[in-house]
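Quick one, C-alpha cells below:
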C-alpha cells in the first residue's frame, strides 16, 4: 500500500491550533506540538476559571453587602435572615449594587427587613 501524507487536512488542522495560540510566548505559538499542549491547557484553564469567576464574584458581593450592613448597624447574616423572614427576594448581586451605588435604597431594604 502506498504512503499517504497528511497534506491539506493536516496543514489545516495545524493552522487551526496555531491560530488558537497566536499570542503566546516562544514555541507555544510556532511549533505545532507545543502549541497543541498550550491550547489544551489554555482551554482547560478557561473552562475551570469560568466557574471560579462565579465563586469569586459571590465572595465579592457578600463582602460588599456585609460592609454596607455594618454601616447600617447590622451584619450580613442578620440581614439575610431578616430579608428571608420579610419575604424580600433580592439576590446578592442586586444587593451589592445597591450597597455600592445607592446607599439610601440599601438602608430602606435593611429597614424593611426589620432588623434596625
Amino acid at each position: 500500500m502506498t504512503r499517504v501524507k497528511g497534506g491539506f487536512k493536516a496543514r489545516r488542522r495545524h493552522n487551526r491550533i496555531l491560530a488558537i495560540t497566536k499570542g503566546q510566548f516562544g514555541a507555544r505559538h510556532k511549533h505545532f506540538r507545543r502549541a497543541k499542549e498550550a491550547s489544551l491547557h489554555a482551554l482547560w484553564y478557561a473552562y475551570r476559571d469560568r466557574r471560579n469567576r462565579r465563586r469569586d464574584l459571590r465572595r465579592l458581593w457578600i463582602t460588599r453587602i456585609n460592609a454596607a450592613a455594618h454601616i447600617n448597624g447590622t451584619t450580613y447574616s442578620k440581614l439575610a435572615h431578616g430579608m428571608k423572614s420579610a419575604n424580600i427576594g433580592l439576590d446578592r448581586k442586586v444587593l451589592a449594587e445597591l450597597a455600592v451605588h445607592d446607599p439610601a435604597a440599601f438602608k430602606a431594604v435593611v429597614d424593611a427587613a426589620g432588623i434596625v
